[in-house]
Write a structure and sequence with these properties.
By secondary structure, the chain is of the alpha/beta class. It has six domains: 134 residues, Fumarase/aspartase (N-terminal domain) (Fumarase C, Chain B, domain 1, Orthogonal Bundle); 247 residues, Fumarase C, Chain A, domain 2; 53 residues, Fumarase/aspartase (C-terminal domain) (Ribonucleotide Reductase Protein R1, domain 1, Orthogonal Bundle); 234 residues, no CATH class; 97 residues, EF-hand (Recoverin, domain 1, Orthogonal Bundle), CATH 1.10.238.10; 84 residues, EF-hand (Recoverin, domain 1, Orthogonal Bundle), CATH 1.10.238. It has 40 helices and 23 strands. Helix 11 links the parallel strand 7 and strand 8. Belongs to the class-II fumarase/aspartase family. Fumarase subfamily.
């Protein structure tokens, strides 16, 4: 033992340690001689003032068992562990065990240090454990000191106190002790003790209480992985997906030639090509998210081998809950600790998802750089942003550097997954001993993919442009356009034409004509690239005669010899009487009935259609006379007919739900109750009915025809008299409550799958609200999540003088009902489309499924579609409450700017409130804009206003205002704009802005701005705790909600440094 201690006291230190201490290596001292060889050159004030100060003269002091040896430029202390004494740099918080690991594993240098996210995750665990251990008897003073020290580690204050590399023990024990020692020593210092004394806070007994490295390190691995995925990876991939979708939409009109096997193929649009890239990233994001639930399960509480030795019952659950509270992520204790310690399948699965994302990005980056190859001698279909010179010898050369960088990132990630797979397979018996290398590779992959995607988006994707001239040239020269001739001249003849054209160097048209296969006119008619980019419309299915007095049940294709059953269910009869009493005449059409029900001169673009406006013309003399006649004769008669019908309907419905409890609301009704409710119809092929939604009487039409289960807003349960009946036959959803909507999706799927047994279909209006019928808005995906076939139905209310549509900008419900009763008749056309069966891709992607069904219904109605949602209705209602005129109240497609600029309903609501304060009659002119900003009129505000006023009308509506401000705050370079604005106001560069600085800058360029206006703006930015200064964090928070101010100040800064330039 004596020899061992002597050897320890005289050993030399590795080069890496001396480098860390800013001291060249020295010769080993002789046995028995104590020669300090270490110097710590740390400059951080975090520890240089709180630990042992250096001394001009040699001194040796023994205090509480800790020896400090200090000379000029030499400062160490001696700590001990079970192996004996060892020198530790006195300005570092680590202790003896960390020092031994540091000297024993000199592998790779500082670049191989344990990832800092793991250190912060370990500190998070230590904090949570201290909180829980205090409930089990840990001294409160010790516990609170540990918590304070852990918080400081989490903040990054002591990052350089964790020198150990990942190449250490496979359990991560040394890193666990590194964290224990740093937190222990810092906690000792907080409590006024001597660093290194292990009193009153011991690294093992207190910081590591109820823990083992075997469960602590894997817990930290999971925490670090999930935190970094949310912090870096998902934001980077999400922005890339949004940018690709933007390009998809921008390029949808550009038809190009496709390529398979690197050879020419049939046409597609450039937008379709980019839609493939966008979907790859979308699926990648889904895969990452699907991998996280298992990573959210923590090993803590298993201690050494999974049994939980030395912990209290419930410790694992409480620690996981505390970690979830600290991080804001849904961590929970692992149900089986033996698996959590011995294997890391969850991280292997996450790594596999990262690998798949890397494969996707590799394909996308390679495609982009190949499509952008050139500029003269390559494909040249894409024009890529030029970011930097590409050659040291070839002048003017520019290379696709972002693509190359991303492919290298992907190569590294793919290699990392191989390492993780091998390491994950080596969980021998009760403990996997490859933990550090697993988490190191996973975290590197997360960071590389997140940063790589962000860089690729910012510096490449958003700047990609299409070379339309080159694309058209290549497409017109392609021989594969011959594919369009297959159905006209046959495959063999088409092949002859293509080969002749290729051999002779002529055009496809010339070759086909010379062979006598067609004439000039036929070629131009048949070979049209714009008709080659989508499937040929299927043959129309059997007509359901429009002469029928009773609309058919919802079924699949009906054979000629099958007669539709007329089912005399009592409520169906009553429903028909009710509709007839209201003067409703319904026409029913099948797919083969030819023309669309609504012919227009031309389709409106989605941006020009307002689906929430009310288009009934001003009441004419004819309409007035008709209303007077109807009010005297028609309305009273119909009301008299309605009263007994409605009473019978209510009584029968009450009888059908008699005796049912709350639990029964989520289950299908019993067979004898269903006999009272609806006529039987086949639902085995298309169990879900989806329809557009315009009027409050839409559900009545379907109840009359098939009485399906329907999805309705929760408010209908409060309807007088029939509310409780509706609550049993409908699936209710609170459209404002996300959890309610999620539960509804599950219920829809349950009911739809039960439809084959109960033969009762589910009716859904996927728009989620009513529109004026001029356009279809966004379809919600609830009807499409089950992946089952759907029956699309298109409703159209023919009208000339009165539109029964129920929209926020229109009349009240009572007004609509009164006018309906006064009409000679009300006409509705019910169009049954062919049942739509999703393919495998649509089953995986409900959004795509919904979009395709919407396009079918829109095509049948001959209307366009917009990206409006129910949230637009809520926003419009708020606008009307703020006295914004109806015609100006709904100019924003919130769903569109949400996807483009990450603006949610609450953001839009704040923008609306800001707009309504200074707008006049729903529009804001330049003077009102300046008043809203509380700024004077000058070149800066004028330039900002003209940027938002996109149509140059001299005034802006709410739509322009919202999109303009959202675009500013979500621009890729907006963080640079914030930095520039802050630096412009921070004149002395001390990291904060005072009132004098703000006045000096703003009043210089906004000459009409007085002190009161500046002070008002300053107060808005400053916090209540520090009202005299504005720190950068406060400035950034203000900027997020008020991007217009930041843009103005940044523009001032630009003028100060480089002269005035536009910030558009």
């Amino acid at each position: 033992m004596t020899r061992a201690l002597a050897a320890l006291s005289t050993r030399s230190y590795p080069k890496s340690f001396n480098r860390l201490l800013n001291r060249p290596p020295t010769a080993s001292p002789s046995v028995g001689q104590y020669t300090p060889t270490l110097f710590v050159g740390r400059t951080s004030s975090a520890s240089s003032t709180s630990l042992f100060p250096s001394s001009q003269s040699l001194s040796v002091a023994f205090t509480s068992g800790v020896r400090t040896v200090a000379t000029e430029k030499k400062n160490v202390r001696v700590e001990s562990d079970s192996f004996g004494n060892i020198d530790v740099p006195s300005d570092k918080y680590w202790g003896a065990q960390t020092q031994r690991s540091f000297t024993n594993f000199e592998i790779g240098g500082d670049n191989e240090r344990m990832p800092i996210p793991v250190i912060h995750a370990m500190a998070t665990l230590k904090k949570a454990a201290a909180v829980v251990n205090m409930t089990y008897g840990l001294d409160a003073k010790v516990g609170n000191a540990i918590i304070q020290a852990a918080d400081e580690v989490i903040s990054g204050k002591f990052d350089d106190h964790f020198p150990l590399v990942i190449w250490q023990t496979g359990s991560g024990t040394q890193t666990n002790m590194n964290v224990n020692e740093v937190i222990s020593n810092r906690a000792i210092e907080i409590m006024g003790g001597v660093v290194g004394s292990k009193k009153p806070v011991h690294p093992n007994d207190h910081v590591n209480m109820s823990q083992s490295s075997n469960d602590s390190f894997p817990t930290a691995m999971h925490i670090a992985a999930v935190v970094e995925v949310h912090r870096v990876l998902l934001p980077g991939l999400t922005r890339l997906h949004e940018a690709l979708v933007e390009k998809q939409n921008a390029f949808n009109h550009i038809i190009k030639i496709g390529r398979t096997h690197l050879q020419d193929a049939t046409p597609l649009t450039l937008g379709q090509e980019f839609s493939g890239y966008a979907t790859q990233i979308e699926y990648g994001i889904e895969r990452i998210k699907e991998s996280l639930p298992k990573v959210l399960k923590l090993a803590q509480g298993g201690t050494a081998v999974g049994t939980g030795l030395n912990t209290r019952a419930g410790f694992d659950v409480k620690v996981a809950a505390e970690i979830a509270k600290i991080t804001g992520l849904a961590f929970e204790t692992a149900p089986n600790k033996f698996e959590a310690l011995a294997a890391h399948d969850a991280l292997v699965q996450l790594s596999g998802s990262l690998n798949t994302v890397a494969v996707s990005l590799m394909k996308i980056a390679n495609d982009v750089r190949l499509l952008g190859s050139g500029p003269r001698c390559g494909l040249g279909e894409l024009l890529l942003p030029e970011n930097e010179p590409g050659s040291s010898i070839m002048p003017g050369k520019v290379n696709p550097t972002q693509c190359e960088s991303l492919t290298m990132v992907c190569s590294q990630v793919i290699g990392n997954h191989t390492t993780v797979s091998i390491a994950g397979s080596n969980g021998h018996f009760e403990l996997n001993v490859f933990k550090p290398v697993i988490i190191s590779n996973v975290l590197q992959s997360v960071r590389l993919l997140g940063d790589g995607a962000a860089s690729f988006t910012k510096n490449c994707v958003i700047g990609i442009e299409a070379n339309e001239k080159k694309i058209t040239q290549i497409m017109n020269e392609s021989l594969m356009l011959v594919t369009a001739l297959n159905s006209h001249i046959g495959y063999d003849n088409a092949a002859k034409a293509a080969k002749k054209a290729h051999k002779e160097g002529t055009s496809l048209k010339e070759a086909a004509i010379s062979l006598g296969l067609l004439n000039d006119k036929q070629f131009d008619e048949w070979v049209r690239p714009e008709k080659m980019i989508s499937p040929t419309p299927s043959k129309l299915w059997r007509t359901i005669s429009s002469k029928r007095t009773t609309p058919p049940p919802f079924r699949t294709k009906i054979p000629t010899e099958v007669k539709l059953k007329k089912d005399n269910r009592w409520l169906s009869i009553l429903g028909g009487v009710t509709l007839s009493s209201m003067g409703l005449m319904a026409k029913t059409y099948g797919e083969e009935d030819g023309t669309t029900v609504k012919q227009r001169e031309e389709n409106n673009e989605s941006s020009e259609v307002n689906p929430f406006s009310y288009d009934t013309p001003v009441v004419t003399w004819y309409e007035r006379i008709k209303l007077i006649f109807g009010a005297i004769f028609l309305a009273p008669t119909r009301i008299i007919l309605l009263i007994p019908t409605v009473i019978s309907l209510i009584c029968t419905a009450k009888l059908a739900v008699l005796g049912l409890d709350e639990e029964s609301k989520s289950k299908p009704l019993a067979w004898w109750r269903r006999l009272l409710f609806y006529q039987l119809s086949e639902a085995s092929v298309a169990p879900i009915i989806v329809s557009n939604h315009s009027s409050f009487i839409d559900p009545m039409i379907y109840y009359y025809e098939a009485f399906p289960t329907s999805v309705a807003k929760a408010e209908i349960a409060k309807t007088p008299i029939i509310g409780d009946v509706l609550s049993y036959i409908c699936i209710l959803v609170d459209r404002r409550d996300r959890s309610s909507r999620d539960a509804t999706v599950r219920k829809i799927e349950e009911r739809a799958r039960e439809a084959t047994v109960t033969d009762r279909q589910v009716l859904i209006f996927p728009e989620g609200t009513t529109t004026n019928g001029n356009a279809l808005i966004s379809f919600k995906t609830g009807a499409f999540h089950p992946g089952l076939p759907v029956q699309p139905v298109a409703l159209h209310y023919s009208h000339r003088h009165y539109n029964p549509a129920w929209v926020p900008a229109g009349p009240t419900l009572s007004h609509l009902l009164l006018r309906m009763l006064c009409q000679f008749y009300n006409s509705v056309t019910v169009n049954y489309l062919e049942p739509y069966t999703p393919d495998e891709r649509e089953k995986r992607d409900p959004l795509l499924f919904a979009h395709n069904v919407r396009s079918k219904i829109a095509e049948r109605l001959n209307v366009s579609w917009t990206e409006h949602t129910y949230e637009d209705v809520m926003l419009m209602t708020l606008a009307l409450q703020m006295h914004i005129p109806k015609e100006e109240a709904s100019h924003v497609e919130l769903n569109r700017i949400k996807s483009m600029y990450n603006v949610d309903f609450n953001d839009a609501k704040k923008l609306l409130e800001k707009f309504s304060k200074t707008s006049k009659k729903g529009r804001m002119d330049y003077e009102g804009f300046c008043r809203s900003l509380n700024l004077s009129e000058n070149e800066f505000t004028e330039q900002l206003f003209s940027t938002i006023d996109t149509d140059g009308s001299g005034s802006i509506n709410f739509g322009e205002f919202a999109v303009g401000l959202a675009a500013m705050s979500q621009r890729v370079d907006f963080q640079d704009t914030i930095r520039l604005a802050f630096e412009a106001l921070d004149m002395d560069g001390n990291g904060r802005i005072d009132l004098w600085e703000m006045k000096s800058v703003l009043k210089r360029y906004f000459t009409n701005m007085d002190d009161q206006q500046v002070e008002h703006l300053f107060i808005q930015m400053a916090s209540k705790e520090e009202p005299h200064i504005i720190k950068k964090a406060q400035f950034e928070a203000f900027a997020a909600e008020n991007p217009e101010y930041v843009q103005l100040v940044a523009n001032v800064a630009t003028k100060r440094t480089t002269g005035y330039r536009s910030f558009q």
